[in-house]
Amino acid sequence: MLASQRKQIILELLAREKQVLSSELSQKFAISEDSIRRDLRELAAEGLLQRVHGGALPVSAAIAPIETRKNVQNRSKQNVAAKAAKLIQPAQVVMIDGGTTAHELVMRLPKDMAFTVVTHSPGIAVSLVDHPLVEVIVIGGRLFKHSVVTVGSAMIDAISHINADLFFMGVTGIHASAGFTTGDYEEACVKRALSQRAAETVVMASDEKMNAASAFAIGPLSLASTLVVDSEPDMALRAAFAEQQIEIL
C-alpha cells in the first residue's frame, strides 16, 4: 500500500473514531510504529490532525486568525451565544473571554440589566460601551494579537484579586480524552487562571470545536460546570460530561 493511501485511511479512521492510536495502526497496516509516527508527523505538518502521546486526534478548525474565524460557523456561534446570555443574572460579576463566540455573546447581553463584566479583551470592552448599566473592568497586559486579548504576568496578577460568579470561556477544541485545548501556550495559561477565579466556568463551543484538539491544554473537562453547544454532542462526549456532572445546554 502506498503511503498516500495509508494516510487517507488514517484520516478516515480519525473522522469516524475521533482518535487513532499508533500501536493499533501499526498492527492494522503491518508496519512499524516508527513508520506510523512518520505518517502522523507528515499529516500534522499539513494541518490535518493533532498529534498526541500514543496517536492523534482530529485537529481543531478554530485556530485560524480572528478575521478568518469570524466567518466560521456563524449560525452555530449565534445560537450558542443566545443560550449563554440567558445564564447571566443581575448584580453578578461575569468574566468574558475573547474570541468570536464571546463577541456574539456580548451582542446579546441585555442593556437593562445591571452587572459587572471583567474582560481581557479590548474588543469585548468596547462593545459594552453602549450598555449603560454594565460596569466594565478591563484587565491589561501584553496584547496577543492573534486573539486580540491580553496575556502575561501582569494580567494573571490582576485577575488574582477578582472573585467572579461566571467565566464564559472560549476554546478551540473539546475532546473526551484531551479535555479543553487552545492553539497558544500562554493563552491556555490565561484561560486556566481565569477559570480558577470563577465560581462556575461556562464553556461556549460552536460545532467545529467538538471532538477536536489543539496543541495546548487548558485543562480537563472537569474545569467546566456548563457546556453550551448548538447541536447534541456524540455519545462518547455526552458520557464524558455526564461522568463529570457537567450540564449541557
From TrEMBL:
<dbReference type="GO" id="GO:0003677">
    <property type="term" value="F:DNA binding"/>
</dbReference>
<dbReference type="InterPro" id="IPR037171">
    <property type="entry name" value="NagB/RpiA_transferase-like"/>
</dbReference>
<keyword id="KW-0805">Transcription regulation</keyword>
<keyword id="KW-0238">DNA-binding</keyword>
<feature type="domain" description="HTH deoR-type">
    <location>
        <begin position="3"/>
        <end position="58"/>
    </location>
</feature>
<keyword id="KW-0678">Repressor</keyword>
<protein>
    <submittedName>
        <fullName>DeoR/GlpR family DNA-binding transcription regulator</fullName>
    </submittedName>
</protein>
<dbReference type="InterPro" id="IPR050313">
    <property type="entry name" value="Carb_Metab_HTH_regulators"/>
</dbReference>
<dbReference type="InterPro" id="IPR036390">
    <property type="entry name" value="WH_DNA-bd_sf"/>
</dbReference>
<dbReference type="Pfam" id="PF08220">
    <property type="entry name" value="HTH_DeoR"/>
</dbReference>
<dbReference type="InterPro" id="IPR036388">
    <property type="entry name" value="WH-like_DNA-bd_sf"/>
</dbReference>
<dbReference type="InterPro" id="IPR014036">
    <property type="entry name" value="DeoR-like_C"/>
</dbReference>
<dbReference type="Pfam" id="PF00455">
    <property type="entry name" value="DeoRC"/>
</dbReference>
<keyword id="KW-0804">Transcription</keyword>
<dbReference type="InterPro" id="IPR001034">
    <property type="entry name" value="DeoR_HTH"/>
</dbReference>
